[in-house]
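Deliverable D4.2, example record:
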Amino acid sequence: MPIIATDIHYRMSGGASNADPALALGGAKSSAQFTTNVIFDDVTSSEAATGDAEYRCLYVHNAHATLTLLGAKVWIQSQTSSADTDIAIALGGEGLNGTAEAIANEGTAPVGEPFSQPSSFAAGLTLGDLAPGSHYPVWVRRTVNAAAAGTTDAWTIKVQGDTNP
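Output generated by the structure prediction step:
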């Protein structure tokens, strides 16, 4: 049976038992999963007035018991619902099965990670082959433009690859 979407988990960072998306600021992979479009809080009026950039780190985790996800890529399947905000992603420089650096707070960018906005599998960021139980750190940045309208954003990232028959 091939790997299916439910075999790919998005796990928080911030320690083995972290279940708070606000604390997913890098560090060890958590056993807790989350929905990617709820890792950021609502845009407050002060963030909307002045503009803001916030960061979260998640781990793409292959939870399949026996199959490797081959040639995996991650991209932004749907961008934010607000014209005043956007999402960008970056691979953790620590690479496959690495532990992402921990940042001081949600306003501190990870060091040296180039953010981009790939919007298709072809343009996606390459994770490589994810064996069973393997993971790859991925950073997500939400940018709020100055003078933005307050909003609750919805967006989606996607991971896809192939499996051997």
